[in-house]
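Saturday, quiet lab. Running sequence design on the structure tokens for the scaffold JK sent over.
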């Protein structure tokens, strides 16, 4: 049940209350004040405002956990209206001889006096610390409703203000006849609050209902040109009151209905659209607040039909993977399968399989149940020769749009150009005479090899030729295309690589480029290095 927040300003004229809390006395304070609360029955409760100071630090400093729980009084279930029956003060002895003149109650922050009670008591030693001084309030004290807050005091010489300084509410002002209280800056207070059986009379309240039909339109269930939207409830015997479309938003429909109700009454309602399609979310409820009752107006929030929001709207995403280049390379054949796997399916499974239904080598499929603004991460995978093959490129990403075309198209591994390759026999030769003469290379125990991009920088062993034992040579097949650069270096055991920049200063490795004539002939004989 909703409650209208009420703010009680505990104001003392020319008085500032200090509320710094003492952590050292939390345990004792919690025990003491919890026991005080237990004395009250279910029809009465107590709100504490016990600011900390050196004057009361030993016995009356309130622990932080009590302070923050009890400066806001949240009514119990069924407690719709309340009265303040009694105010208790714990005055400092510095105010002896001062006069407590009057206690007043205002509505809307000191602008509308609705209750005043003269006290005119001169404070003596029986009314100050360590004694609590109690001021019973008469039955004329007005009924209040909702949450009660104790405001926070500001700087010196300023009055207490609510947590939200722009709000208005109910205010208790305590007026006195001296400036002594300014010096103390201390006034622990208890408010004894009693449940009230007050029930305000029913009155006419203009209640405005609003519903958003956008998702029903997007799903094709609702047709704005021909269908009508209505609201029905306990205020009109569940008859349909036709709603009108708002000019500011053609998806919003609104209706203002005169409802006879009192504060805390519950309005029950649902929306429907023609011919007779009612919401299935259960009966909606709105509780008339005190502010609604006072103003005679209740403007309900706009809600989606069946409470469905755009965030819940299922959106399709289409994935397309072009496998043509991979097929030309002979690494994928028709009959193999393509999948999309990502964070939306646990990076596994076969449910998200793509199909090539028209034989164009583009595997595609649309999948529902994605959400607006959902950021998905995924990769394409294929199953070739019974083995799962994942793209070696990085993860792919897509942010799902409500309105855009959610289609993701890519080549496998983003390789969109097929370059024909063939096997070319390449002859590598190197002379080891100088390393042998320098005593660095020992032909009887050391081995020579060529390593490069063509063999994954692995070892292709070379052998000395019969006509010159210092020249080592190997003929090895390389799969390459026209204009492809092949990087390589010579190496001899146990771990000696060639120096850098031996072909040119721009490349650390040796290299050669496959020419068209090399490709056509299928042979390359490199010079002896």
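Result came back. Writing it out in full:
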């Amino acid at each position: 049940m909703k409650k209208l927040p009420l703010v009680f300003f505990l104001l003392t004229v020319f008085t500032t209350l200090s509320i710094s809390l003492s952590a050292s006395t939390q345990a004792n304070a919690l025990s003491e004040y919890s026991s005080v609360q237990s004395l009250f029955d279910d029809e009465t409760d107590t709100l504490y405002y016990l600011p900390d100071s050196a004057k009361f630090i030993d016995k009356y400093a309130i622990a932080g956990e009590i302070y923050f729980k009890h400066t806001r009084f949240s009514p119990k279930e069924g407690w719709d209206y309340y009265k303040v029956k009694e105010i208790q003060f714990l005055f400092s002895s510095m105010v002896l001889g001062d006069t407590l003149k009057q206690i007043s109650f205002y509505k809307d922050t000191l602008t509308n006096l609705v209750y005043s009670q003269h006290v005119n008591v001169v404070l003596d030693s029986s009314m100050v610390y360590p004694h609590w001084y109690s001021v019973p309030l008469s039955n004329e004290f007005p009924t209040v409703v909702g949450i009660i807050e104790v405001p926070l005091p500001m700087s010196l010489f300023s009055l207490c203000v609510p947590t939200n300084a722009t709000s208005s509410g109910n205010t208790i002002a305590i007026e006195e006849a001296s400036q002594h209280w300014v010096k103390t800056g201390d006034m622990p207070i208890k408010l004894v609050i009693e449940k009230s059986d007050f029930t305000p009379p029913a009155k006419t309240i203009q209640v405005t209902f609003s519903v958003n039909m956008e998702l029903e339109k997007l799903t094709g269930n609702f047709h704005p040109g021909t269908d009508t939207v209505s609201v029905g409830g306990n205020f009109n015997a569940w008859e349909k009151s036709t709603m009108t479309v708002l000019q500011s938003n053609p998806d919003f429909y609104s209706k203002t209905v005169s409802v006879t109700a009192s504060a805390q009454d519950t309005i029950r309602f649902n929306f429907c659209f023609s011919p007779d399609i009612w919401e299935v979310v259960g009966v909606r409820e709105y509780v008339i607040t005190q502010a609604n009752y006072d103003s005679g107006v209740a403007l309900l929030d706009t809600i989606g039909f069946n409470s469905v929001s755009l965030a819940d709207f299922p959106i399709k995403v289409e994935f397309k993977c072009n496998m043509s280049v991979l097929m030309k390379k002979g690494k994928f054949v028709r009959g193999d399968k393509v999948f999309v796997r990502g964070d939306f399916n646990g990076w596994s499974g076969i449910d998200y399989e793509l199909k090539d239904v028209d034989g164009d080598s583009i595997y595609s499929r649309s999948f529902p149940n994605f959400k607006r603004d959902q950021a998905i991460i995924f990769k394409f995978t294929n199953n070739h020769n019974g083995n799962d093959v994942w793209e070696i490129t990085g993860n792919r990403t897509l942010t799902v749009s409500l309105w855009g075309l959610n289609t993701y198209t890519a080549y496998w591994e983003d390789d969109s150009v097929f370059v024909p390759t063939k096997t070319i026999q390449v002859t590598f030769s190197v002379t080891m005479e100088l390393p042998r003469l320098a005593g660095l290379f020992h032909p009887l125990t050391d081995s020579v090899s060529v390593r490069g991009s063509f063999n994954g920088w692995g070892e292709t062993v070379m052998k000395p030729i019969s006509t010159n034992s210092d020249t080592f040579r190997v003929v090895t097949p390389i799969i390459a295309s026209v204009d492809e650069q092949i990087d390589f270096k010579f190496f001899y055991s146990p771990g000696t690589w060639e120096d850098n920049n031996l072909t040119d200063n721009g490349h650390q490795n040796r290299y050669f480029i496959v020419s068209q004539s090399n490709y056509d002939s299928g042979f390359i004989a490199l010079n002896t290095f």
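Notes for JK: The chain has four domains: 6-196, 203-311, 314-414, 422-528. The longest helix spans residues 26-37. Ask whether to fix the surface positions before the next round.
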